[in-house]
């Protein structure tokens, strides 16, 4: 009986709930007073226990004359109820998984609000195993980091990391530094920020006196941005 009680506790019953349920299984219909006498559990607590057991669907009651008598439901009904719960859970698992995956993507975003942090992000790009794709606003990187800009380009060159840069045609006279390939979009194409794509990362840079970078690490999002970039690259002119 002790083993059965432990299993019932794993099912979600407390020590006293399991004791009352097993008593009802053995004894059949009982009043709260009879349960109190048999278990030595205080009468007030017995009523609370019986109410919780009814909420859990393992005990029912019937009125006989003026007496309320409690009875344990057929144990097979517990298994049936649990199967129904499991079926309901199985229905929502795909939606829960989708929510979890979406949440994971959101968590993998980091915001850098200081120049040191932004430099670290840029430095990481110099070791990229793929080309770095850039949708640029034109000149803001160099203006924000005038001393570091050429150092960054030289490190890209040294590590044989190539840049593919899309700019507005308004910057057509801009001299393309090595190692990079530039293409130009129509005049109305003006990007308010600079977006760089590398491997599984998308980094959005907002330049100015207080620059900021938002780095998103996600294969799915990076692939989406790369596809968008490739569409624009085909439309752009050298």
Name the descriptors.
238 residues, Arc Repressor Mutant, subunit A, Endonuclease, Chain A, 2 domains, 9 strands, two-stranded antiparallel ribbon, 21% strand
Descriptive overview:
The chain has helices at 2-11, 15-27, 32-39, 43-55, 75-107, 115-125, 140-144, 148-158, 219-235; strands at 59-64, 67-72, 109-112, 132-135, 163-168, 180-185, 194-198, 201-206, 212-217. It is an alpha+beta fold. It has two domains: 2-74, Winged helix-like DNA-binding domain superfamily/Winged helix DNA-binding domain (Arc Repressor Mutant, subunit A); 107-235, Endonuclease, Chain A. The strands form two sheets. A seven-stranded mixed beta sheet has the order 3-9-8-7-4-5-6, with helices on both faces. Helix 2 (15-27) crosses helix 4 and helix 3 crosses helix 4.
């Amino acid at each position: 009986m002790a083993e059965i009680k432990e299993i019932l506790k794993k099912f979600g019953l407390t020590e006293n709930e399991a004791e009352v349920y097993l008593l009802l299984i053995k004894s059949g219909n009982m009043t709260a007073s009879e349960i109190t006498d048999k278990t030595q559990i205080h009468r007030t607590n017995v009523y609370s226990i019986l109410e919780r057991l009814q909420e859990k669907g393992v005990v029912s009651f019937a009125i006989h004359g003026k007496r309320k008598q409690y009875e344990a439901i057929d144990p097979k009904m517990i298994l049936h109820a649990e199967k129904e719960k499991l079926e309901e859970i199985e229905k929502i698992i795909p939606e829960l998984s989708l929510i979890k995956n979406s949440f994971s993507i959101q968590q993998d975003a980091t915001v850098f609000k200081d120049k040191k942090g932004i430099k670290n992000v840029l430095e990481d790009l110099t070791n990229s195993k793929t080309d770095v794709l850039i949708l640029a606003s034109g000149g803001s990187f160099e203006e924000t980091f005038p001393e570091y800009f050429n150092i960054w380009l030289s490190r890209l060159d040294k590590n044989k990391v190539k840049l593919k840069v899309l700019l507005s045609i308004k910057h057509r006279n801009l001299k393309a530094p090595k190692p990079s390939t530039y293409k130009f979009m129509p005049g109305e194409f003006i990007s308010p920020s600079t977006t760089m794509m590398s491997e599984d990362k998308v980094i959005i840079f907002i330049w100015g006196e207080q620059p900021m970078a938002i780095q998103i690490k996600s294969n799915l999002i990076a692939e989406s941005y790369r596809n968008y970039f490739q569409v624009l690259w085909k439309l752009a002119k050298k």
